[in-house]
FMN-binding protein (Desulfoglaeba alkanexedens ALDC), 246 residues
Amino acid sequence: MNPSRAFSVVYMFAVSLVFMSLVAGIYVLNAERIELNEQIKLQGIILRVLQVPVPPDAEKETVVRIFSQRVTTVAEDGKTLYVARNEDGAVTGYAFPLYGPGFWGSIRGMMAVDPELKTVLGIAFYSHSETPGLGGRITEAWFQDQFKGKPLMAPEPGGNYFELRPPGTADQPNEVDAVTGATETSRRLEVFLNRNLKEYLAWIEANKTRLSGGRDTAGRGRARTHPGVPISRRSFSCRFECPVGA
């Protein structure tokens, strides 16, 4: 090989290696902060779907404080549940993860229901790989707001809690408008949404008495976390503020 050409190849390789090492180093140095920010973002989403008041443009520390004061995390039996309470300790709602395959990749969200399991408090989809302007519109307010206040009517055997109908045709209590031009995303979202709902509502109903007791049961039973969802608020809220000796 021509010496000049060989030098160019080695030089480019060395430069690429240096830049790759720098990028990797920066990521490693900031990995914990990135993870913490993602967890705080998720806390904000959970508070929002549970309709727990949070000041507009609240600082991260404020979000963590409110979450710590108002939400109890339960992680057991392969499920993660967030129980919201008012200042008197009474349960005001339950939030749980939504997770399933979309058209291009996994979709993750969060749904909250009232203490009687009869009404949707809120829903949010926060992670997906769907096409922007099409399936990606599941994150838009108009789509998510359709679920708020919807009744949770027990479906017939083999039926669903919710059906996504062609845009502009939803006219029943258990129907919402699908996203225009995103038939597959809407269809797949409907499937895992109803699957998650049936699973969690049945589990909450079976454990409601214990869940209303006020204890953080993360780690009890056969506990494990749902993908992308922290198992316990304590694991990261203490990085901001915790009682002495915590």
